[in-house]
Amino acid sequence: MEYEVPEIGTKFDVGLANCEVMAVNNNAKDLNNSSIVIQLNYLKQNYLFMGDSEKEVEDSRDWNKVNVLKVGHHGSNSSSTERFLNQTRPDIAIISVGLNNQYNHPSEDVLNRLKNLNTTVYRTDEDGSLLVESDGKQNVIKKIKTNN
Q: What is the CATH number for 126?
């Protein structure tokens, strides 16, 4: 089986969407910051998927404004710094986080930073599974009912 190891700046298309690898680091001692970070651009909409990345990755570069941000590291205070959020200025933030998790994620500090930017926040612990639909001009977030 052949595979490619992506590098920062690697570009690829998914249908009409253009994707770029913004960060990647294969470090077995720092798995969170080894998450691949991808920016996806679809017509007039920009999305940033941060994986489990934390402050170190956020501080490693400058970031573009995005419409939708998949928040890094479950909304932990080790991610979504003020500098990073002021650069990305997301309209919508999605936090993937387990209900009643032992780490008390997401952090109130992160939620407050997003609130201060007037970002609409969706959380999987409160909203369930989420689907983002876009026509390239606007986004619609749909809450998918799941059986627990």
A: 3.60.15.10
Q: CA-to-CA distance for 82 and 80, rounded, in angstroms?
A: 7
In sequence order, which residues have a C-beta less than 8 Å from that of residue 68 and are 6 or more positions away?
Answer: 45, 46, 47, 48, 90, 91, 92, 93, 94, 132, 139
- Which residues contact residue 75 at a Cβ distance below 8 angstroms, ignoring those fewer than 6 apart? 95, 97, 105, 106, 107, 110, 111, 123
The answer to whether position 1 is within a domain reads no
Match 């909203």 to its residue by tokens. 127
Looking at residue 147, its pLDDT comes to 57
Number of helices and strands in the chain (H, E): 4, 9
Range of the domain at 113: 11-144
Rounded Cα–Cα distance for residues 31 and 34 (Å): 5
pLDDT under 70 in the chain at which residues?
Answer: 146-148
Q: Is the pTM of this model over 0.85?
A: yes
